[in-house]
Write a structure and sequence with these properties.
By secondary structure, the protein is an alpha+beta fold. Helix content is 16%, strand content 43%.
Length: 206
């Protein structure tokens, strides 16, 4: 994927502010824009892998009514190959050689200049999902994940993954990002699984 932009159509105007944070001890990223029209939040995450690899984005209206613009520029093979994009049963399908991707969203999409665009307005309390799925092109069309359920599953996954973290060495700074804490937990669990849980002052060698 070369680029996936989704932001307020008035981003950059006077008074626009942006904040970004991870949700708790997860790798669910929340980006929030405050604009003269209102406030909108983008929720980005990758669910635990099932049938295929998914990237999910949920656009949530926090206050007001905010006009949004989405642009997706798909490229395969490290950005060198432009895929053929077609519309199939309400989804966008991009295919090039062994690679394929599917984009599912209720937003009306259009193609121009080898890019997929969409414009929509999100009001307070509304949530607009985008699900981008990758899999090998010779395989059958994947079953699309449901964005809200995938969000709950992803939060649960990280909660369970981090539950043993109290036994792992904490990063030196208490202000470490959730990403750093998650990776530290991953390394610790890997060491425990391999049988190496070295304590300070001991050697890895027997």
């Amino acid at each position: 994927m070369r680029g996936w932009r989704c932001g307020s159509r008035i981003t950059g105007c006077s008074g626009t502010r942006r904040r970004r944070r991870y949700r708790g001890d997860t790798l669910i990223l929340e980006s929030e824009w405050e604009t003269p029209e209102g406030t909108v939040r983008l929720i980005d995450f990758m669910p635990p892998r099932g049938e295929a690899a998914d990237v999910v984005r949920i656009v949530e209206g926090v206050s007001g009514r905010v006009p949004m613009h989405m642009a997706l520029r798909l490229r395969f093979d490290y950005g060198r190959i432009v895929p053929w994009v077609r519309h199939i049963e309400g989804e966008r399908n991009a295919i090039a050689g062994p690679d394929a991707a599917w984009l599912k969203t209720p937003v009306e999409l259009r193609g121009r200049d080898l890019t997929t665009y969409g414009d929509f307005t999100v009001a307070a309390g509304e949530r607009v999902p985008f699900v981008l799925t990758y899999m090998a092109s010779h395989k059958p069309r994947p079953t699309a994940v449901e964005a809200e359920r995938a969000l709950r599953d992803t939060e649960l996954f990280w909660s369970e993954w981090m539950r043993d973290y109290d036994y792992a060495p904490r990063p030196a700074s208490s202000s470490s990002t959730p990403g750093a804490r998650c990776w530290t937990a991953c390394i610790w669990r890997g060491r425990r699984a391999s049988g190496w849980t070295r304590t300070p002052g001991t050697s890895r060698s027997p």
